[in-house]
Description:
The protein is α/β, with parallel strands linked by helices. The chain has 13 helices and 17 strands.
Amino acid sequence: MKITNFRIAELQVPLKKPFKTALRSVEYIDDVVVEIHTDEGLVGYGEAAPTVVITGDSKGGITAAIRDHVAPALIGLSLDAPETIFGRLDGAILKNTSAKAAVDMAIYDLIGQSLGVPVYKLLGGFRDTLETDLTISLNQPGEMAVDAIEAVERGYKTLKIKLGKDPQLDLKRLMAVADAVGEQVSLRLDANQGWTAKEAVRILGKIQDQGIAIEFVEQPVAAHDFEGLKYVTDNTELAIMADESLFSPADALKLLQVRAVDLLNIKLMKCGGINQALKICMLAELYGVECMVGCMLESKLSVNAAAHLAAAKSVVRYVDLDGPGLSLTDPVDGGSAFDEARILISQSPGLGVKAVEGLHYLD
Length: 363
Ligand SMILES: [Mg+2]
């Protein structure tokens, strides 16, 4: 079976409420969808999220990368030789990990469909259900507490609390949430690079003094500051996770070699897709470090691909796949079932996506 054509489209999905972090505020998902067509009529689906403040990938950039560089490199290739396809994908253009992630997942979708096997089984098949957290956006303490209570009422047992704009206010935010939800809910923190290394150590010490139990803390310092990450990791008892510091398998290796963090957050949009994510999983396993699989602001289309990866691998202990939970509508027919915190992995061949509603084709 050969790759014959690429189609690129835009997809907008409204959010339940604006998504706010130390880096940005977003009102709706505004992503790029790619369809890869074959000579036997199968269609593979992928999605890329333009997260300019994290990946540098914009909508126009993603579209051009796929249309002008990736598609010409892949059209005509046989799905019988994935190694050739992924080599060409990687070499077609530097960086552009979001565009590559969309194409990579569409290729896995096609491979799974052609073999009649769901992708998570192809990759390892470790489990077929997952439990995700829900993100509480960065707002005033009172509003965050209200959002947290609402999330618990929706069935979430783990919440990811966005912090990182003001260390003093951050402590108030966290205490407001912790007071509101009580001890039966697990809390994870994400500072999105908002602190300096010393600020991070200070605030994490204060959090421990308050007796608030924290699962882990994501990306306390700037993405490039590997030394700062290591300083925080070495000077707190809380587990520290790399997010924006970790894009490629090479980044993972550097972080692991110096023990700069305790945990890794793998996102398809940062590493360039499932094929690269598997390399990070393998490295993490070798170094005895557990992973989370996370997502950007993505619809169920690409979050479903991340769920297949997360379900496949035993080294993935944590799941932060709340794009569908944050969305007001679901444009995807098929794929895994996202029922608030509970994700039931699709058993259909490939990624299980049958159709996507509301696509605006760019060709
Ligand atoms: Mg994060």
